[in-house]
Amino acid sequence: MRTFLSLTRRNIKLFFSDKGMFFTSLITPLILLVLYATFLGNVYRDSLISSMPEGITIPDRIADSVVAGQLISSILAVSCVTVAFCSNMLMVQDKATGVRRDLDVTPVSPAILSLSYYFASFISTLVICFTATAACLAYASALDSYIGLNDVLMLLVDVVLLSLFGTALSSIINYFLSTQGQISAVGSIISSCYGFICGAYMPISQFSPALQKIISFLPGTYGTSLVRNHAMSSTLDEMETAGVPVELIDEVKKTFDLNVSFNGDVVSLKGMYLILALTVALLIGVYVLINVMGNRKEKR
Amino acid sequence: MKNVIEIQNLTKTYGSLTAVDNLSFRVKEGELFAFLGVNGAGKSTTINIMCSALQKDSGSVIINGNNIDTDSDKVKNDIGVVFQGSVLDKSLTVLDNLQSRGALYSLHGKELRQRIDEVARLLDFSDLLKRTVGKLSGGQRRRIDVARALIHKPKILILDEPTTGLDPQTRSLLWKVISSLQKSENMTVFLTTHYMEEAADADYVVILDSGKISAEGTPYELKTKWARDTLTLYGVDSERVEGLGIPFERLGDGYKLYVSSPLEAKTIVVENGFDDFELAKGKMDDVFLAVTGRALNGGEAQ
Hints:
heterodimer, A: mainly alpha, 12 helices, about 0% strand, B: alpha/beta, Alpha-Beta Plaits, six-stranded mixed sheet, about 35% helix
């Protein structure tokens, strides 16, 4: 255990000693926040107001709060995964610089080594994503959004879970990479694609039924929905208090992916947590396994 | 002295290339063992197999009584490796590096800190512990590399071209420390080098070519068998030297003659009354050249 902790500490120190790597990882969610707020905030707001049936008007504060909830949930859902890809470079760097050879001549097992990379990368991702969450909450607070303390706490739980998921996913993919160029290319692909396939950039409800079906099999979808639920639930409660009909609120929930269906059934929040937790466990298991098997193969 | 490394019929192939070909040799405990060969001779492959970083095709490797097939963790605990290039984390401090590497051998807390202080004193870098490795000079970094290899008190220190590119002062310091460890802790040193003067100080030398042993023995045995002694005569004119009927070459103020043995040299000196002369054994460079047909100079095979 102490060996694992020491290796993890080494990996975290290496990540934070590279200021460039840290700020590059941190700046992505912050840029997203600025871009969203500057260019898309008003578009979302106008679209929400115009989608209301005749005779129903929603107060400005609620409209702003819905938009803020959508923006910050999109940013956090994407960032937890893309930041994980940015911060999970060390195992590739160690291969490229020859440090891995030095680690391999020691009695430490490949499983411990791989888990230390995973855990360190998770911590680094979490630090950055919590910083991004703080920035997002500051933005929501500036708009006087409805986000309760309970929502904030659950949002933090979601960020932890999504960071675990993003780190596990990036660990498996990065395992097969051996150069800095490859990892940058993969990072770029993930950054540009993941937001779409997890429903962060565009609500899943707007995709074709066939695509929705495919996306319902991707665990990231449920992560996005969890963040959406916790970023917007207080606002939706306020809509109900303001007299917006329940049917309309349900429609809003569906439109913004607060309700995600799998095989025709709406998946509950508990179900979403379960899917994500099981996926994380499975991905970590696969990651450790390929490291142990790969270590044997590399010796040949 | 017991054998601390026993390699028997070791073979390793990469596709159609046989990197190590039925190799067998032994290294005695506490000796300085030089493992020589041009690039691609199979040295690194053999070392990687010894460190359990590479699987062999056949043969057996026993390190300090432990078989690498069944007790690789014990073997790894007995071995410290100084790689050709530095493999430390350049953006971390020396202390961070040694702490993280020491932990890989289950060294923690006070015990680890004491060991770090010990190797820092030994290699004279106590003042560098808080410095970032990437900001150290080549020689300073090499000392840290050696310290990293010694952190867990290995029984065998593998030095893979440890002094290439180092200044004479650092080379001398490293060898002083290594020799002292060899004596004080009866540590076995397994050395690959391109500097033949380092190999000349070894207790036993193996020269590898195309994965096989081309020659082995003590430096004295190898020099006697593969290199000719030289007798240099001073204060004589060329006619007297030509009169000896022995091939010679002009060398500054003297004449260098190649002789088959010290006895032949003695006969020449005594019979001809030469009173200013110098007798030198053949060099390891000559041995290497004679054995492999190629010379090793400053790291390059020629």
